[in-house]
Design a protein that fits this description.
Layout: E1 2-3, H1 4-10, H2 16-24, E2 28-30, E3 33-34, E4 41-42, E5 48-50, E6 53-54, E7 62-67, H3 84-89, E8 98-99, E9 108-114, H4 117-124, E10 132-139, H5 144-152, E11 155-156, E12 159-160, E13 165-172, E14 177-184, H6 191-198, E15 203-211, E16 214-215, E17 224-226, H7 229-237
Parallel strand pairs: 9-15
Antiparallel strand pairs: 1-4, 2-3, 2-5, 5-6, 7-9, 7-17, 8-9, 10-14, 10-15, 11-12, 13-14, 15-16
EC number: 5.4.99.-
Enzyme class: isomerase
Keywords: Isomerase, RNA-binding
Length: 238
């Protein structure tokens, strides 16, 4: 038996909090009866409907994608651009999946996709502080002081970012560019680009090479693989 709002979130109806609002406002029926009590528990034998539409409880699937450039981190795009979900659809994945978080249109690298709403919401919640490591090609020579500022945190929108790990991987004095590795535990809007710009180094290219303990070993740009059961278990323990 599981709480109704958890079942709804895992089925991709809405977040758990939004599901609670749907329940409280009388949009949810269990075995034909409208339920408004948030503590209600249901089993796999119960029929759950939202506004008369049956809840489809899919088997949970988990994928790791190496996102290429010029692909949208979304299930749909109003402008008709290719999305990360399109990549998996083209290879026969037909579950109703969605990305865990986002990577910018021009950013490449590791991205998780799933239909497990509960896990996705946990991984995206700031309090769980999942480490994400990026490789950035930036303008200008990066100094030790710049790296120190990134480690201590920089101010964005009046708030200081949490301490990050940073190191200089390469510097090209002729082209006046640098390669920086940056590990953060947050996920604010354009955070890595804005952090680097705040210390005077606009990003030219950005790649996310790891997410928690997961990396892109053996997965080429535009390719994906299904997560192994032990990896899923470890993600749930983060």
């Amino acid at each position: 038996m599981e709480r109704l709002q958890k079942v709804m979130a895992e089925a991709g109806v809405a977040s758990r909090r939004a599901s609670e609002k749907l329940i409280a406002s009388g949009h949810v029926q269990v075995n034909g009866q409208t339920v408004r009590t948030l503590g209600t528990k249901v089993s796999s034998r119960d029929t759950v409907e939202v506004d008369g539409v049956p809840l489809h409880r899919e088997k949970h699937v988990y994928f790791l994608l190496n996102k290429p450039r010029e692909v949208i981190s979304s299930a749909h795009d109003e402008k008709g651009r290719r999305t990360v979900v399109d990549i998996l659809r083209e290879e026969g994945v037909d579950e109703r999946i969605y990305p865990v978080g986002r990577l910018d249109y021009d950013t490449t690298g590791i991205l998780l996709l799933t239909n497990d709403g509960a896990l996705a919401n946990k991984l995206m919640h700031p309090k769980f502080e999942v480490a994400k490591t990026y490789i950035a090609k930036v303008k200008g020579p990066v100094s030790n002081n710049d790296l120190k500022q990134l480690r201590l945190g920089v101010k964005l929108d009046g708030r200081k970012t949490k301490p990050a790990k940073s190191r200089l991987k390469e510097s090209d004095r002729v082209k006046k560019t640098s390669i920086v590795q940056l590990t953060i535990h947050e996920g604010h809007y354009h955070q890595v680009k804005r952090m680097l710009e705040a210390v005077g180094h606009p990003v030219i290219k950005l790649h996310r090479e790891s997410y928690g303990f997961l990396n892109l070993q053996g997965v080429q740009p535009g390719e994906f693989r299904e997560l192994r059961p032990e990896e899923v278990k470890k993600l749930k323990q983060l």
